[in-house]
Specification:
174 residues, alpha+beta, four-stranded mixed β-sheet, 6 helices, 4 strands, elongated
């Protein structure tokens, strides 16, 4: 094989490597995009599952009356559509069936939507001010007119369950 033939062969191999590397890059990018999109879709459906915990047509006043009738605290979850940690918390914690069952059995849930800087419902405006919501997500247990437990952050499921159970236990019980 002469040097011209050797150079041509090396050049051909380099072109094949370049083409293969380019194809590998395209495959990797497509795979990553698929994983990301599937994760977003899963998060959206998890957020929908979490939303099923809250009765969308109930006002805070309705929920308070229900809590008094059932002798349970109100569980208020303060969130916003633009809040990434809120969406993560909804998907990891509030979408869980056992967590939802626990909340429903021990409290009356209420969603305080703070997507707008000032909630459109005047009752929600007063509630947000009363609770001094300064970070999202935030969650509260309210009995009568008293906040008996307050938490915030996209904490782990086990930590949330512990917080919730401690806060929702009847007075005098651990």
């Amino acid at each position: 094989m002469d040097s011209h033939t050797t150079e041509a062969a090396v050049s051909g191999v380099k072109k094949q490597d370049t083409i293969l590397n380019g194809l590998l890059g395209v495959v990797l990018v497509a795979s990553l995009a698929t994983i990301i999109l599937r994760g977003q879709a899963g998060g959206a459906s998890d957020a929908a599952l979490a939303a099923s915990l809250f009765e969308s047509s109930a006002t805070f006043g309705d929920v308070v009356r229900q809590s008094e009738a059932e002798d349970k605290p109100v569980f208020v979850f303060a969130t916003a559509d633009w809040c990434g940690p809120c969406q993560s918390f909804k998907g990891r914690v509030l979408a869980d069936g056992s967590v939802q069952d626990n909340i429903r059995s021990q409290a009356v849930p209420y969603l305080l939507d703070l997507t707008q800087s000032v909630p459109s419902d005047p009752e929600d405006q007063r509630l947000a001010a009363k609770l001094s919501v300064t970070s999202l997500p935030s969650y509260f247990l309210i009995t009568g007119d008293e906040v008996v437990a307050k938490g915030s952050g996209a904490i782990a499921k086990a930590d949330f369950v512990s917080w919730f159970e401690a806060g929702s236990a009847p007075a005098g019980q651990p």
